[in-house]
Amino acid sequence: MLMSTYEARLAALREQMAKDGLDGFVVPICDEHMSEYVGDYAQRLAWLTGFGGSAGSAVVLKDKAAIFVDGRYTIQVRDQVDGKLYEYVGTAEQSVIGWLGEHAPAGSSIGYDAWLHTKDWAKSASAKLAKRDAKLVAVEANPLDVIWEDQPEPSLAKLDVQPDEFAGKSAADKRADIADWLKGEGLDATVIAALDSVAWAFNIRGKDISNTPVPRSYAIVKADGNAELFVAPEKLTDEVRVHLGNAVTIRNYGDFPDALAEYGEQNIGVDPERSVAAIFEKLEAAGAKVVQKRDPTILAKAIKNDAEICGHRAAQARDGAALSRFLHWFAEEADKGGHDELSVAAKLAEFRGQSDKLMDLSFRTISGAGPNGALCHYSVNEETNRKIETGTLYLVDSGGQYRDGTTDVTRTMAVGEPTEEMIKRYTQVLQGHIALAKAVFPKGTTGGQLDILARQYLWADGVDYAHGTGHGVGAYLSVHEGPQRIAAFGGFNEPLVAGMICSNEPGYYKDDAFGIRIENLILVEERDVQGAEQQMLGFETLTFAPLDRRLINLDMLSESQRAWVDAYHQQVMTIIGPQLEGDALAWLQSQCAPLA
C-alpha cells in the first residue's frame, strides 16, 4: 500500500534507516548533476515532506527532523510542511552541517547519497560530525528510493539538435576549444556533469526536466577532441546521431560510474561545484589524478555570442508581445471578478502559446494574488489558489523557452484602486530597478558590487527583500544560469563580462498583504565613456512590456528617473507596438504615453 501521509513516509524512512544501520540521513533537493531543477524521479524532498520549493534540504534523525530553506521560502515551508514533524531552519541562521554538529548523537552514523552532494560538502560534514565522535556514511542505495514505491522513472524523451544558426558555434568547434583548454592545463580529459553544460557543449537539447530543455546525460571530453556521451540510447534519434558524428562515442547513461574507472593513471579535470562526490571517489579509486577545475563550458556558455544575443532579442520581442496582450486582457478583466491565480496563469500561457515558436515555459509561472504575492517564489496549486480581488496587487513572474532564447519577466499590477503604501513601495522598487539598469561600471566589477544600487531606496526606508537582485539566463537553456549573479550575499564574486545576460528584479514583500517585483533581463555590454581611463561596461535592457503607471508616484521620481521610464516605454512601443492591433494596441499606447 502506498504511503499517503507525510508522517507515514517519515516513519518509513526511519525504519529503512534502522535496517541500513543509520542514525540519520540527509535529504537534499538535487540530482546526480547538481541541478537546480530536477526530474520527477529526483523530487525526494517533496515526496518526503510536502515542500514544493526548488531549494532546500532535510535531515532526519531517529527522534527529530529538520527542514532547511532560504529566505525565499520562509512562509511557504510553513504552509507545506508539518511543524510537528520537522523543525524549520533558515539557512541564513544555520546550515545543515551546523545543525548536524549540534544535534547528531555521539557515535552516530549519518547517511548521505554521494551522488547527491559535492565532495566539499561531504568533507565539511565529516569534519563537523567527527567532533561529536559521529561519522558520515555514503549509502549504497538511497533509502528514499527503497521506500518510494511509486517513484517515477527517469524520462526517456528524445533528444533534439540545437541548430548552429541559434547556437552560433558548432559542437565540434566547442569541443575543440575544450580540448585546447585541456592541453593548456596539462589534463587528459574533463568530466562534464552539469546537464546544461552537456547540452551546450554538444548543441543538443532534451525534455527530461520540466521547463529546462536538457537531456539527462554526462560527458567526458578528451584532449584529442574526442568525447564520450553517456545517455540512454533509446533517447537518440538518427538526426542526433549524425549530428554528434564519429568523434563522439555514445555510451549508456548507466555505464558512467564504471566508465570512470577506465581513466585511472590519467589527469582528469573535475568541477567541484558541479560534480558530485561519487565522481571524485570513483576516479580516485581507479588511480586517476583528479584536478579540481571549473567546468570549461561555464564561462563560454555565460558569455553569449552574436547569434545567441540576436536570438535573445528576437525571443524577448516575441515574448513581450504575448505578455503585453495578457496585460491588456488583465486590465480589462481583473476587476470583473471570477478570476483566480490558476486561471490567470493559464490565460498568460495561452497568449504565449499563440506563437508557434514557443517550445515550453521557462519555469512554472509564479502567479501571486494579494498575500500570496508576498511569497517571492510562490507556486500556486488547487489548495492555495486565491481569487483576484479588487483593492489588491497581483504579481506574475513568468517566461518562455524559445528555440532562439529564454525569457524571464515579472510584472506587478494593481487590481482596482491601489493604496498609498502599495504605490510608495512599487515606486521604490522601480527606482532601484532603474538605478541598476542605468549603471555604468568598470571591467572587473562583480554583481555583488552592484546589488546595493537596486536596494538603496528600500534601505533608506528601513525595508529590504530576501532574494538576489539578478541571476544569469541561458540561451534556450536554464532560466537560472551561472556563474554571474547580482546579489549581496553568498560570495558572488564573478566579474560581469560583455555578453552575459542577467535579470534585474528588485522587489518588496509585505507578509499577509502583497508582493511587488519588477523584472527585466539585461545584457552586459561595453560602454564608450568619454575620457574613461579604463574599459567601462553597462546594461542593455532586453525585456519590453509596459509598467503599471497607476502604481508610480511621480513626485518620488527624479527627472532622470522619469526620463528613463518614458524612454523605456518608447522602446516598448517601437518593439511591441507593431505586433499588436486594435484595442490591445490602443491600450499599449495609453500605457506608454509620457508620464505627466
Can you give a write-up of this model?
The protein is an alpha+beta fold and 596 residues long. The chain folds into three domains: 6-147, Creatinase/prolidase N-terminal domain (Creatine Amidinohydrolase, Chain A, domain 1); 160-295, 3-Layer(aba) Sandwich (Creatine Amidinohydrolase, Chain A, domain 1); 303-591, Creatinase/methionine aminopeptidase superfamily (Creatine Amidinohydrolase). It contains 19 helices and 28 strands. The strands form eight sheets. A six-stranded mixed sheet has the order 4-3-2-1-5-6. The mean pLDDT is 95. Residues 535-595 form the Peptidase M24 C-terminal domain. Residues 312-526 form the Peptidase M24 domain.
